Amino acid sequence: MQRSWPDFHQAAELVINGYIGEINKVVVSVGGPPDACEQAGETVPDALDWDMW
Description:
- There is one protein chain.
- By secondary structure, the chain is an all-alpha fold.
- The longest helix has 11 residues, at 6-16.
- The chain has 1 helix and no strands.
- The radius of gyration is 22 Å and the shape is elongated.
């Protein structure tokens, strides 16, 4: 989704056109691990074919 934001397009244009100089290293962060879910289990419907699914 965010790849379609104008700010990301502008950043890509700056890199592609060399406005920020030569890039030697890129560091990416995607955030921490997700929080644990404390959801109750559900029964598996009889009609559900796990092999087919």
